[in-house]
Amino acid sequence: MTVALSRSPSPLVQGLRDGLPFLAALMPFGLLFGVAANEAGLGLGAAMGFSIGVIAGASQFTAVSLIHDGAPALVVVLTALAVNLRMAMYSAALAPHLGAAPLWQRALASYALFDSTYACAAAAYPRHPGWSLGDRLAYFAGTAGPAVVLWLIVTALGSVLGATIPPWLALDFAAPICFLAMVAPGLRTLPQVAAALTSVAGALLLAWVPYSLGLLVAAVAAMAVGAEVERRLARRGRA
């Protein structure tokens, strides 16, 4: 008698499946960015340039908001870079899994590295220690491919439609929901929780600072608090 064994999906298919829930939040998020770019006086070409060149929603929103407020170019660039500093931490976390790939594959992965692709990869790779490098790259491609294409499409739609999107749709709900879905499962240790609480408190207390520069201070304070809590825990463990 032959027993049929169920086969697990390929890493590519699993990546497509794991990334699917994030697309639901990505659509209104991208539409909202297109609308915001339109309201800031940026045409379709400039909006698409943002999404193609930066492909990071939070820093894109920050930059467009500062442009709309008339902030100096240097402030716009530095603030957007600061918001995207988390990508450096994402890269460091995924380097042990993808660092052996050829340069061109690492370049493509770094281009498509944003919050949802990192969240999926960071959760999947430890669950599958037997995956080869090719499997890990295939999984990453599955999470990133649809997200990149959809982000560009909805950015264009938001820019073209602009003010025709009615306010009652409340597209801005997508951003906090998307970030909460990615951040909440990762708050597993005391240093992580301390850093998260510090960033929230700092952002709220410094909301009055011009050009959203309070976000920079809150981010630095959060990293410092998280590192200090981790240092004290490590010292206590050695005692």
TrEMBL record:
Keyword line: Cell membrane, Membrane, Transmembrane, Transmembrane helix, Transport
InterPro entries: Brnchd-chn_aa_trnsp_permease
Main subcellular localisation: membrane
Pfam short name (any one): AzlC
GO terms (BP aspect): L-valine transmembrane transport
Transmembrane regions listed in the UniProt entry: 20-37, 44-67, 137-161, 168-187, 193-226
Homology family: Belongs to the AzlC family.
A GO cellular-component term linked to this record: plasma membrane
Subcellular location: Cell membrane
Keyword presence, Cell inner membrane: no
Coiled coil ranges: none
Lipid bilayer topology: Multi-pass membrane protein
Protein name per its UniProtKB record: Branched-chain amino acid ABC transporter permease
Superkingdom in the source lineage: Bacteria
The keyword Membrane is assigned to this record: yes
